[in-house]
Amino acid sequence: MKCIIIEDERPAQKLLKNYIERYPKLKLIAMYTSALDVDMGMIASCDLLFLDIKLPQISGLSFLQTLPVKPEVIITTAFANYALEAFELEMTDYLLKPFNFERFFKAVSKAENQFQLKNKQKEGKTERTFFFIYADKTFSRIDRDDILFIKSDDDYITIHTSHKKWLLNDTLKRWTHKLPNNIFVKVHQSYLINKSKIDTVKGNQVLIGAHTIPISRSHKKSFLDQLSDYL
Question: Does the predicted model carry a pTM greater than 0.70?
Answer without folding.
Answer: no
